[in-house]
Hints:
By secondary structure, the chain is α/β, with parallel strands linked by helices.
Amino acid sequence: xxxxxxxxxxxxxxxxxxxxxxxxxxxxxxxxxxxxxxxxxxxxxxxxxxxxxxxxxxxxxxxxxxxxxxxxxxxxxxxxxxxxxxxxxxxxxxxxxxxxxxxxxxxxxxxxxxxxxxxxxxxxxxxxxxxxxxxxxxxxxxxxxxxxxxxxxxxxxxxxxxxxxxxxxxxxxxxxxxxxxxxxxxxxxxxxxxxxxxxxxxxxxxxxxxxxxxxxxxxxxxxxxxxxxxxxxxxxxxxxxxxxxxxxxxxxxxxxxxxx
Length: 260
């Protein structure tokens, strides 16, 4: 079967800063610069010694490899900090891996965080077109799907209200409606069901089944094991950035995750 995504030996390294002025405010940048250019004497020398900056390597992902067939429904499981969000950001080309290769066969649509791709000052209507454009859709395609998107989100009354006045639930409804209704070939979702109510969660699962039934591939991160068991036909389990299980036996994946 043709693959939708093939991940080969992906690793991602970050540098963690310890000590010093590292948060990057203008005052701290200026203060740090002055410490470097002014003579190091007396109390100033002591200040410099107590604000030394050191760096630590942190591997968010370590040598990850797996393959997803077209039309599969992959659940990604792991505790907080296991590397799930980092993996999804790499798959969406939001960040690049430190090493390894990713091969993607199809157009990717994603919803990684509530409000991703939304401008708070623009209305819901305007953000539908903005978000659709970010996802690579043509304006005519967005117009054709607009009514369907609004109907799914159930926020027609507020579609011309600035998004900054939306609740988090309203934002995720609209964001999911855009991502799921623009005919994606690969749909990547990160904890989208954590915000909505029970009825919306069921509606999302039904829509995801409809998408995968049309031949699209869905990658789904969710801490709720019931949703993973109900929907997915393949699962991977991450722990401390490493892949510890890749299986089509969803029950064994859930057991591995719960044992963590």
